[in-house]
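User: I'm writing a tutorial on reading structure tokens. Could you give me a worked example: one chain, its sequence, then its tokens, then a sentence or two explaining what the tokens reveal?
Assistant: Sure. Here is the example chain.
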Amino acid sequence: MSREEKRQEEQRIVSDHQNSLELEQIIFVGRTFEEYIRMFDLTTDELAGKAILDCPGGACSFSSQARKHGAHPMAADIVYQYGIQELKTKGLQDIEHTMKQMQTVQDKYVWDQFGSIQGLKEERLLAITDFVADMKSHPECYVNTVLPELCFNDDQFDLTLSAHFLFTYADRLNFEFHVQTVSEMLRVTRHEVRIFPTVDLSGKRYNDMDELKMFLEKMGCKVSEIQTSYEFQRNAHTMLRIIKPS
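And here are its predicted structure tokens:
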């Protein structure tokens, strides 16, 4: 990709998150609640009574299962502008397509948790099944939002979780977008924000991580990179934990 093509692609993705998104442009595949617990170094006991934002929530089952553990979850994503049936159809198609692609890149992943591509497929199907059922039961908890802005009140959530977006697409989302998005997540969160993973799609640590951490520390936040027990993409096993000043 040339420099100009990369610039245009970056502008397109940022534009998608500022305006609208064609459903065919995305891969609508989600993670399970169990994956979230490991990615974000959580326990089920600490979820009870917490207001938790999952952003971007995608087709993940975290909200569905966290609610069963006494949490008050809400998910936000630009794709929630679409209807449930559209999202379900897209998600099932993308799972099939993704599993076919996995055949040629298996060496880039760690298979301890899933065992095989079939095992991975079953988990992805479980995630979208839970997501669809919960969205039908609690549509008000799935909010269409356009990052870097969030349509929530200050300090509305105890905890915000963000998986596989920031840092992951660092080649297409510039540093300013990262700063604006993390700042907005902190605005709507009382206590802390956790972001997973801290690497891009090649498994390389986010280039501007130290600059971002410095920015957050100047705000008074306590920032740490924490290794978790979750690793599927190789080298993607660390989350960024940001604790707001009390």
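What the tokens reveal: Helices lie at 3-16, 33-39, 62-68, 84-102, 117-137, 175-187, 209-218. The CA atoms of residues 51 and 72 lie 5 Å apart.
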